[in-house]
Amino acid sequence: MNRRHFIASAASTFALAAHSAEPARKWRVVVLGNKGSYGHSLDTMWLKVPGTEIVAAADPDAKKLEATLKELKITQGFADYHEIAKAKPDVVAIGPAMGLHRDMALVAAASGARGIYLEKPFCRTLAEADEIIAACEKNGVKLALAHRNRWHPTLPVVKKLVQEGLIGRLLEIRGRGKEDRRGGMEDLWTLGSHVLNLGAFLAGKPVACSGAIMLNGKPVTQAEVIKTKADFGPMAGNEVHARFDLESGVPFYFDSIQEAGDPKVGFGLQLIGTKGIIDIRVDQTPLAHLCAESPFQPMKEARTWVPISAAGVGEPEPIADIGKQVMSHATGALDLIACIEDKERQPLCSGADGRLTVEMITAVMASHVRQGERVSFPLDVKENPLANWK
After folding, report:
1. Is residue 221 part of a domain?
2. How far, in Å, CA of 145 to CA of 15, rounded?
3. Minimal CA–CA distance to 102: which of 231, 226, 234?
4. What is the pTM of this model?
5. How far is the C-alpha of 45 from the C-alpha of 135, rounded, in Å?
């Protein structure tokens, strides 16, 4: 991680404290929903972000829109999100499911807004990702993707500890989704996107992928592809296994099997080294723990897991309410605003980061339809591989 990016990460960590005093101006926020859905509170989050004010909301469902306006204590609402430019937004928050992201992001980018805060996953295909990124670049708009754990101040600490050799040589990364009823490709899209995003940050971008999609223990066939999931595009299977070869030389594995795990604890990844393991549990506090023992040596005593805070291994957490700050999206929102003011940098989780995650998920499907072939990055396909399976 370069010095500028480390400083940016640290700055976002203490953003709330820096914004304790009311600024001279407030950033005008418009929130986009669909039938009352605003993702993980991408509407109400702005009520807790200093220096911002919600000025309008959009939702095609009249009753849901009325309820949203009442909850947000605003009066301006739009049945058609194409009209949001009338509200003169500085920031547009897009909360609905992924199937609407491309269209809403293009409208937001052309609305006069300077920033977009977008629910994850980014979008359905690389083609859509490229359209969104191009529209943002054309209009000078900064886009932040709501992989909220990416703004956690413990992450750069973990990365530095690994680089310094705390767990010896990093041998591999292993990640899993929640493995609930959505196990398989839906889990990979919805929750695995968090894990892929974190893995690429911690150990480098992927250079190749091999993957398999299964249905009840057998490889998915073309006839078993479901083409009715508008939010995700074509889907298949209830089990997925993938290996990504990272530019650092470290293999990164992701697995998800329907109803195979405990959704309260299984969601996350482990960095496995020759001298120890760092475990990261997504959305949990503490975010990370260290087991400074060889992962390959059986022991008579119980292994010890030591929390890692923003101050280091076993150190008291120096940031009050760190979990609430991250989970409420406050750190991500303030980082987006800081990036709008600083034209030289992108949000810590940007459109480019979102595109990479979509590319990794696309690679799993591409490998499967090619009978497990190891596919290289950048991919040679921009649409969903299951859609044109031959």
Report:
1. yes
2. 18
3. 231
4. 0.93
5. 25
